[in-house]
Design goal:
alpha+beta; five-stranded antiparallel sheet; 3 helices; 7 strands; 19% helix; elongated; Transposase
Length: 146
C-alpha cells in the first residue's frame, strides 16, 4: 500500500531527509572536525587531542604543522588515518579515530591552517614531541619483557 502526501503537502525527498538528519546535533553528539575548504584528505583524517597548555608547548617543537583546532580546553591536531598503528599516544593525549570530537555541542575553531593542500601534521614528529613533553618513552624504545 503506497502512502500519499496530504493534499497541498509536498513529500520530502531522500536528499532533504538526509540533510535534515545530518543537521541535527544534540548535546553530547560526536562531531567530526572539518577539512578546510580547498584542502583534500587523501589519507583520511584522525585527530590527536591534547590539553590546551600542552598544545601551546608542542607547536614550536614541530618542523611542520597541519591544521590545528582549539576549544577552551583542548587542541586537536589533524593526522592521517591510522596514525595510531603500533603507537601508544602518551597520556594525556587522546587519539580520535575519524577526527571525532566527543561530547561537543560546537566544534573547536581552526587555530592553524596547513600551508599546503592537505590538513595533516606529520604524526611521528607530533608523537615524539608529546613523548618528550610528557616524559614518556616512545613505543619502539621500550624494553620488551619475556
Amino acid at each position: 500500500m503506497a502512502m500519499r502526501a496530504a493534499p497541498g503537502v509536498r513529500p520530502l525527498g531522500l536528499d532533504t531527509m538526509v540533510r535534515l538528519q545530518r543537521g541535527r546535533h544534540t548535546a553530547g553528539t560526536p562531531r567530526r572536525l572539518p577539512v578546510p575548504d580547498g584542502m583534500t584528505a587523501p589519507l583520511g583524517c584522525d585527530a590527536v587531542a591534547v590539553p590546551a597548555l600542552l598544545g601551546q608547548q608542542v607547536l614550536p617543537r614541530l618542523p611542520r604543522v597541519g591544521c590545528v583546532y582549539a576549544d577552551e580546553t583542548h587542541w586537536w591536531w589533524i593526522v592521517p588515518s591510522d596514525s595510531d598503528y603500533a603507537l601508544e599516544w602518551p597520556a594525556p593525549a587522546r587519539y580520535a579515530t575519524g577526527a571525532i570530537v566527543p561530547g561537543s555541542t560546537s566544534l573547536p575553531a581552526l587555530l592553524h591552517r596547513s600551508d599546503g593542500t592537505v590538513p595533516y601534521t606529520p604524526p611521528i614528529p607530533l608523537y615524539l614531541a608529546l613523548c618528550r613533553l610528557t616524559n614518556t618513552t616512545p613505543t619502539w624504545s621500550r624494553t620488551v619483557s619475556a
